[in-house]
UniProtKB/TrEMBL annotation, chain A:
Family: Belongs to the mitochondrion-specific ribosomal protein mL37 family.
Organism ancestry: Eukaryota, Metazoa, Chordata, Tunicata, Ascidiacea
Subcellular location field: Mitochondrion
Keyword list, A-Z: Mitochondrion, Ribonucleoprotein, Ribosomal protein, Transit peptide
InterPro entries: mtLSU_mL37, Ribosomal_mL37/mL65
Name listed for the protein in its UniProt record: Large ribosomal subunit protein mL37
Pfam families per the UniProt record, alphabetical: PDCD9
Database matches in PANTHER family: LARGE RIBOSOMAL SUBUNIT PROTEIN ML37, MITOCHONDRIAL RIBOSOMAL PROTEIN L37
Length: 468, 579
C-alpha cells in the first residue's frame, strides 16, 4: 500500500491536484489537439458538458510543459519582413500597403520615447509616478477643507441611497453575457454559480450611480450645477523631457539620466466646470517644497518597465478645443475593473492627473518650462466598486528638467502613505465602502455586510468641492 | 485516498470542479501582453458527498422514498419539531437519504402550458420563482425569436404584425397628460444651451482613439445621450419626486416569453399547438422608479376595449424567423429577487443556522419609467432609398420604428406584469405603463405603452375584450446638422417632448388631468391604426405615411404626364389618340 501511495503521489495525475493550480491540470481535459471531436449535447433541457471525445485516441494526455518565454526555433526567421519584396508587391498590387522599416516612417525620431497608456501603468506604482512627475506627498491625509465640506454637505438619506446602489449592482443587475442563448450551461449551474456579478459590470455601474447621486445633491444645493458637465472617456496626451539630476548613476547601467516621456491616457469619466478649482495649498506651502527632496527610488530606474518606441509625435494635447465652454478640470473618476492593488492604482491616478493638468498648463502658460504663477489643481477618485482611493494634486511647476526647485504636490487619503511607499505591493491599504455583497452573503438579512458610511460621505464631499 | 483528477471524464453529472478565470494579474503588465489568463479549478462543493446531496433521488431506482418525500409538508424541515421557517424555503434536507428536496408543488396528471385546462397547476404557486419554473423551464420546445428592430426584415407593414403578436392598438399622437403638460420656459432655455454644448462635444472633445468610424460615431452618440438623459433625471427631480430614488440600468437586457395563437410546430405533433415567442430587447439606458406611472387612458374606459386588431393566419415560419430552443426567459432588466440561492441552504445547515436563513430581497424600484434605445450603428435612413439591393422602401422607415416601439413597450411592461405574479390566466388588475424613446442620434421617436392585458394566448383571447394601447409619434428631428461652428436647427418640440416624458409622474398627472371625460374625448380625437376589414392581409395594408407618399407619387406622375402631353406636337397627339 505505501508503495502504491508513493506511486500515486509521484505520478503526473496525482501532481495535478486542485491546490497546485498549474497549467497541466487544466490541459489534460481542456487544451486538446485540434482534431478532437466531442459528442453532441444530449436531451432538450439544458446542455451537457461536451467532455467525452468520440475517439479517445485523439486526446493528448501529454501536453508539452513549455516555459512562457519559449518560442519555436524558426520563429524569428519567420517574423522577418522582406522589405524589398514588399516594395515590389506594392508596385504591382493596387491598394497594397507595404510594410516600411521603422526608420523610414514619417514619425521616426532618433531618440526613443518612453510611453505609458491606459493598459500599461507604472509597474512600481506610486513611488515611480511621484519621481517621474516630480511630485511630493504634501501632507498626511487629504486637505482638511475636503473633510469639512463632506461634513457640511451630507444628509440623512444618503447612506440608504448608496446602499441601494450597491445592492442594485450586486444583486439585481442583469448581465447580458450571463444569459445563455445556446444551451451551453446546465440550469442548476446558471441559477447557482453564474449569479456572481463581474467587476467590469458592477464597478462602472456603482461609480456612475454614485456620481449621479452627487450630481442630484449639487443641483439641490446651488446654482453652480449648471457650470459643470460629466464627460465619459476623453483622451489626453502629455509629452515632456524629464531630467533626473539627483539620480546617482554610479552603479546604474546608463550614464544619461534624461528621457523623453509620453503619457497617452483615457480617463473613464471626468467632470469639467466653468470655474477652476481653488488651490489646496497657499504660496508659502508651495515655496516650502523647495526644501523637500523627491522620494528616492534608487535601485529602480524612473523608466523601469516602460516601453519605448522611435515612432511617435511629440505633441501635448489636453483633448479639449479652446471653444469648449467648461475648460477647467474638476475631478477624474477611474474604474479599476482589473482590480489593481492600491499602490498601482495610486500611480495610475497620479499619471492621469498629471497628464490633464500639465497639458492644460502648457495651453495657458506656453511651452516654456516655468514655475506657474497660479497653480492648477484637480482631484481623482478610483474604485473597483468596493475599495475607494482618493487623490488631490496641485501642479506648481512644469520645470521637469531638474530635481531641484519647486515641486508638484499630492495628497492621498491614506495617512500612512509615506511609510507604506517602501513596502511591498500588498502593503498599502485603502478604505472599503462595504465588506461583502452578493447572493451568498446570507449572514445578514440585507445581503451586504460592513457598510462604511464615511466613504460615501468623503466621495460626496470630493465631488461637491467648489459647489457651495 | 482519491486520485487527483478533477472528476471522472465520463460522468458529467459528478462534476466537482469548475474553471474560474482571474482578472489580469499584476505582473502580466510588465511581461508581454499576450500572456495567458490565469485560471484555477475551483471546487463547487467541499466534498463529494455534499455535491451528491444536491441531486434528487432518481424516480425509477427509489420510487418509495420519492413518494414519501413528495407527501411531506413543504413548510417543515427537520431541524427541530417546533422549528418552522419565516418564509417558504426552496428546499428541505432529507436526513435519512442525505439529500436536498425541492419544495415546489408536484405535478399530478398532465401538465402542459399550451392548454388552459392543463396548466391549472399554476394557480397553486406561492412565489414567482415557482411560477417561472413551471411557466418557463417546463416548456423545452423550439420557439420563434422576435427581433424588436431589424431593418433587413422581410416583413412589410411590420407594425401591423407586431400589433397582432402583442394584441396592441396603435394610436397616432400622444396621450392627454403628455400632450397638455406644460414646460417651464426658463428651464427650456437652460436645457437648450446644455443640449447644444453636449452635442458640440463631437468637435470639442477628443474621445478615445477608435479606428472604425461607425463605432466612433456610435460611442459619441451614446455618451451624448447618456449625458442628456442624466441631466434631465437630475434637474427634473424637483418637479417629479420619484426621480430622487430612481435607479438607472445601463446596457440592460429585457426579455419576454409568451404564447400567441395556434398553429403547426412539428410533424409529430397536432397542428394546433400554441405558438411560443421569445424576444430579447437591449435598451441602452432605462429609468426605474418606486411608484408606477399613472395611466395614459382610463383603465375602465371604452378606449381600452374597442378597436380591431390585425390578424395573421399562419405561423411565422413564412418570414424565416429564427426558430430554436434554449432556456425561456422573462426579465424587465433586473433580477426577480436577491439571495435565497441553494448554496445558502447547505452552508446554513453545516453551521446549524438553518432557522436564521434570511428571506429573499426584492428590488425597491420595480416600475419601469422610461427607456432609451439607440438604433444599431449601421442604421441609416439613406439605406431605405432605391439602391442596388432593393427598390424604394422609404415607407418602411416609420413601420420599423413603430414596430420597435410596440414590441419594446410590450416586452418591458409584460415582463413587469409577470414579476407582479400575473400570467396569461391571472390577468393584470391595473394598467402597467411605461415610455420608450428610440433614436439614431438625430431622429427621435416617442412611444407610450399601456399594458391592459397579458391574456393574449389562443385559449384566453376569445373571451378577452381588453387591448393594449401604444401611443406614438415617429421621426421627430432633434437637430438639422452639427457643424464645427454650432448646432443648426435645434428642434424645440422634440426637446419639450423629451422633458415631458422624463417629468411624467403623479405630480404632472394631477396638474394636467382633472376628469376622465377629458381624456376620453382627447383619445377619441386621435387616429387609430386599424387594418382594412375588406382586405385583412397585413402586407396589403396602407399605413398613413404610405398613403400620403402614394398620393404624392400619383400627383407627381400626373404632373409629369401633363407636361409630356404639352410638349408633344399636334400630329403626335392625334396619333396617340388613334392608338
Amino acid at each position: 500500500m505505501p508503495n502504491l501511495q508513493r506511486f500515486l503521489s509521484s505520478s503526473p495525475l496525482a501532481a495535478t491536484s486542485f491546490c497546485s493550480g498549474s497549467i497541466t491540470s487544466a490541459s489534460v481535459f481542456k487544451v486538446q489537439s485540434r482534431g478532437v471531436r466531442y459528442k453532441n449535447s444530449g436531451g432538450m433541457i439544458g446542455g451537457r458538458r461536451k467532455r467525452i471525445p468520440l475517439n479517445w485516441r485523439d486526446l493528448n494526455f501529454n501536453p508539452a510543459r513549455l516555459p512562457s518565454a519559449w518560442k519555436p526555433p524558426d520563429w524569428d526567421k519567420k517574423q522577418e519582413i522582406d522589405y524589398e519584396r514588399e516594395k515590389e508587391l506594392a508596385k504591382y498590387t493596387p491598394g497594397y500597403k507595404p510594410a516600411i522599416p521603422s526608420h523610414e516612417k514619417d514619425d521616426y525620431h532618433k531618440e526613443p520615447v518612453y510611453f505609458i497608456n491606459s493598459s500599461l501603468p507604472f509597474s512600481e506604482g506610486l513611488k515611480q509616478a511621484l519621481f517621474v512627475t516630480k511630485s511630493v506627498i504634501a501632507d498626511s491625509g487629504l486637505p482638511k477643507q475636503i473633510h469639512n465640506l463632506a461634513e457640511s454637505v451630507s444628509y440623512t438619506e444618503q447612506d440608504q441611497r448608496a446602499i441601494q446602489v450597491i445592492r442594485h449592482a450586486h444583486l439585481f443587475d442583469v448581465d447580458p453575457r450571463s444569459l445563455d442563448k445556446e444551451n451551453k450551461v446546465q440550469r442548476w449551474k446558471a441559477d447557482n454559480y453564474r449569479i456572481v456579478a463581474k467587476p467590469d459590470r458592477y464597478c462602472p455601474l456603482i461609480m456612475k450611480e454614485l456620481i449621479r447621486l452627487c450630481e442630484t445633491r449639487s443641483f439641490q444645493l446651488s446654482e453652480s450645477f449648471r457650470n459643470r458637465i460629466v464627460i465619459e472617456g476623453p483622451r489626453s496626451i502629455a509629452c515632456f523631457r524629464r531630467d533626473c539630476s539627483s539620480l546617482d548613476t554610479e552603479f546604474l547601467p546608463v550614464q544619461d539620466t534624461s528621457w523623453n516621456i509620453r503619457f497617452d491616457l483615457c480617463a473613464d469619466m471626468q467632470i469639467h466646470s466653468k470655474d477652476p478649482l481653488s488651490a489646496f495649498a497657499d504660496s508659502n506651502a508651495v515655496l516650502a517644497t523647495k526644501d523637500i527632496s523627491l522620494a528616492p527610488i534608487y535601485p529602480i530606474m524612473p523608466i523601469a518597465d516602460l516601453k519605448s518606441t522611435h515612432n511617435y509625435d511629440f505633441v501635448t494635447n489636453s483633448g479639449f478645443s479652446s471653444k469648449f465652454s467648461r475648460p477647467h478640470l474638476h475631478t477624474i473618476a477611474l474604474f479599476n475593473t482589473d482590480q489593481l492593488p492600491p499602490n498601482l492604482i495610486y500611480g495610475k491616478m497620479l499619471t492621469h492627473l498629471f497628464t490633464l493638468l500639465y497639458s492644460k498648463a502648457l495651453e495657458t502658460y506656453g511651452d516654456n518650462p516655468q514655475d506657474l504663477s497660479s497653480p492648477l489643481s484637480a482631484q481623482c477618485v478610483a474604485s473597483d466598486g468596493r475599495v475607494f482611493q482618493f487623490m488631490c494634486m496641485q501642479l506648481n511647476t512644469t520645470k521637469l528638467n531638474s530635481d531641484d526647485g519647486i515641486k508638484n504636490m499630492v495628497w492621498v487619503d491614506n495617512e500612512y502613505v509615506k511609510e507604506e511607499l517602501y513596502q511591498t505591493d500588498d502593503g498599502m491599504t485603502s478604505a472599503a465602502m462595504y465588506e461583502e455583497c452578493g447572493h451568498t452573503t446570507w449572514k445578514s438579512p440585507e445581503y451586504y455586510t460592513g457598510y462604511n458610511p464615511d466613504v460615501f460621505k468623503l466621495f460626496q464631499g470630493f465631488w461637491l468641492n467648489g459647489v457651495l | 485516498m482519491q486520485l487527483g483528477l478533477p472528476s471522472c471524464a465520463r460522468c458529467s453529472k459528478m462534476l466537482q470542479f469548475e474553471k474560474v478565470f482571474f482578472p489580469n494579474s499584476v505582473r502580466s503588465f510588465s511581461t508581454s501582453k499576450a500572456a495567458y489568463v490565469k485560471s484555477v479549478w475551483r471546487k463547487t462543493w467541499p466534498t463529494f458527498k455534499e455535491r451528491l446531496a444536491q441531486q434528487n433521488l432518481e424516480e425509477k431506482r427509489f420510487p418509495i422514498p420519492r413518494k414519501a418525500q413528495d407527501k411531506r409538508l413543504p413548510w417543515e424541515y427537520p431541524k427541530q419539531a417546533d422549528q418552522k421557517a419565516t418564509f417558504k424555503h426552496r428546499r428541505w434536507y432529507d436526513v435519512y437519504y442525505e439529500r436536498w428536496v425541492d419544495t415546489y408543488p408536484r405535478v399530478k396528471g398532465k401538465y402542459c402550458i399550451g392548454y388552459k385546462d392543463k396548466r391549472q397547476l399554476l394557480f397553486d404557486m406561492e412565489t414567482p420563482n415557482e411560477l417561472f419554473y413551471f411557466l418557463l423551464d417546463r416548456y423545452p420546445r423550439k420557439k420563434y425569436i422576435i427581433n424588436s428592430f431589424d431593418e433587413a426584415s422581410p416583413i412589410s407593414n411590420i407594425s401591423y404584425y407586431y400589433q397582432y403578436l402583442t394584441h396592441t392598438k396603435y394610436v397616432h399622437g400622444m396621450p392627454y397628460q403628455i400632450q397638455n403638460a406644460k414646460v417651464d420656459e426658463e428651464y427650456m432655455n437652460d436645457l437648450r444651451s446644455f443640449v447644444n454644448e453636449t452635442l458640440m462635444m463631437k468637435y470639442d472633445v477628443n474621445f478615445s482613439e477608435e479606428t472604425d468610424p461607425l463605432k466612433k460615431e456610435q460611442s459619441i452618440k451614446e455618451k451624448c445621450f447618456a449625458t442628456i438623459m442624466k441631466y434631465l433625471a437630475t434637474t427634473l427631480s424637483t418637479e417629479n419626486n420619484q426621480l430622487l430614488d430612481c435607479e438607472i440600468d445601463h446596457n440592460a437586457e429585457n426579455s419576454l416569453f409568451w404564447l400567441n395563437g395556434r398553429g403547426f410546430l412539428k410533424w409529430t405533433q397536432p397542428d394546433d399547438m400554441a405558438v411560443p415567442y421569445q424576444c430579447h430587447d437591449k435598451p441602452f439606458l432605462q429609468i426605474r422608479t418606486k411608484e408606477p406611472l399613472p395611466e395614459f387612458s382610463p383603465w375602465l374606459g371604452e378606449f381600452s376595449t374597442t378597436s380591431q386588431i390585425p390578424s395573421f393566419y399562419t405561423t411565422p415560419h413564412v418570414f424565416k424567423l429564427e426558430h430554436k430552443q434554449y432556456r425561456n426567459m422573462i426579465s424587465p432588466g433586473y433580477k426577480l429577487f436577491g439571495g435565497d440561492v441553494t448554496q445558502n441552504y447547505h452552508s446554513a445547515m453545516l453551521e446549524e443556522e438553518l432557522d436564521q436563513l434570511p428571506p429573499p430581497v426584492y428590488d425597491p424600484c420595480p416600475h419601469g419609467h422610461t427607456q432609451l434605445f439607440l438604433l444599431p450603428k449601421q442604421y441609416s435612413r439613406e439605406w431605405y432609398r432605391e439602391n442596388a439591393e432593393h427598390s424604394d422602401i422609404t415607407g418602411e422607415i416609420d413601420e420599423h420604428l413603430k414596430g420597435h416601439g410596440i414590441m419594446s413597450g410590450w416586452v418591458w411592461t409584460a415582463a413587469q406584469a409577470h414579476y407582479n405574479f400575473n400570467w396569461m390566466d391571472n390577468d393584470v388588475t391595473r394598467p402597467f405603463c411605461s415610455q420608450t424613446i428610440i433614436t439614431d442620434g438625430q431622429w427621435l421617436s416617442f412611444y407610450c405603452y399601456q399594458l391592459n392585458t397579458i391574456a393574449v394566448d389562443a385559449d384566453n383571447l376569445p373571451n378577452n375584450d381588453r387591448r393594449n394601447i401604444c401611443y406614438g409619434t415617429t421621426s421627430m428631428k432633434l437637430f438639422d446638422e452639427i457643424t464645427p461652428e454650432g448646432v443648426v436647427g435645434l428642434n424645440d418640440n422634440t426637446l419639450q417632448l423629451l422633458v415631458k416624458f422624463v417629468a411624467n409622474g403623479k405630480e404632472q398627472y394631477e396638474s394636467v388631468v382633472s376628469t376622465a371625460e377629458e381624456v376620453a374625448k382627447h383619445d377619441a380625437s386621435l387616429l387609430v391604426q386599424e387594418s382594412d376589414p375588406d382586405v385583412p392581409e397585413i402586407e396589403l395594408q396602407k399605413p398613413t405615411q404610405k398613403v400620403s407618399r402614394d398620393d404624392q407619387r400619383r400627383r407627381d406622375e400626373e404632373e409629369a404626364k401633363r407636361i409630356e402631353e404639352k410638349s408633344k406636337t399636334f400630329r403626335e397627339r392625334v396619333m396617340g389618340y388613334l392608338k
